[in-house]
């Protein structure tokens, strides 16, 4: 399993627009081999921003990398940009290989 995350420092007066863009977009993720699930996470608030993370789970790193080279990826990221900056700096990507897994009721 591979988990891909992008962290965004969203300006406080841009949170509603940011959420609408991310939750209302046609991501085309369900068309991709190996896609498992997507979450948009809202995190802690700082003085000048609120931290968000997009979080996708893939069957493998290879499936995620295929997504980044796909036509579906280009379509999902071609939406019209906002007329104003919604976040500070560039998103920060983090990718993780899952080494273990446990579920509620199971012993780790």
From TrEMBL:
Keyword Oxidoreductase: yes
EC number of the protein: 1.14.-.-
Every ABM domain range: 2-96
GO molecular function: monooxygenase activity
Keywords: Monooxygenase, Oxidoreductase
Gene3D superfamilies to which the protein is assigned, alphabetical: 3.30.70.100
Keyword Oxidoreductase listed: yes
PROSITE patterns: ABM
Lineage top rank: taxon: Bacteria
Protein name listed in UniProt: Antibiotic biosynthesis monooxygenase family protein
């Amino acid at each position: 399993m591979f988990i891909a995350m992008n962290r965004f420092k969203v300006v406080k007066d841009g949170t509603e627009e940011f959420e609408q863009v991310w939750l209302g977009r046609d991501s085309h993720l369900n068309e991709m081999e190996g896609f498992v699930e997507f979450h948009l996470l809202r995190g802690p608030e700082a003085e000048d921003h609120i931290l968000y993370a997009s979080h996708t789970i893939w069957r493998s790193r290879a499936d995620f990398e295929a997504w980044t080279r796909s036509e579906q990826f280009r379509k999902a990221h071609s939406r019209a940009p906002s007329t104003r900056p919604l976040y500070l700096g560039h998103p920060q990507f983090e990718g993780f290989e899952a080494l273990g897994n446990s579920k509620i009721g199971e012993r780790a």
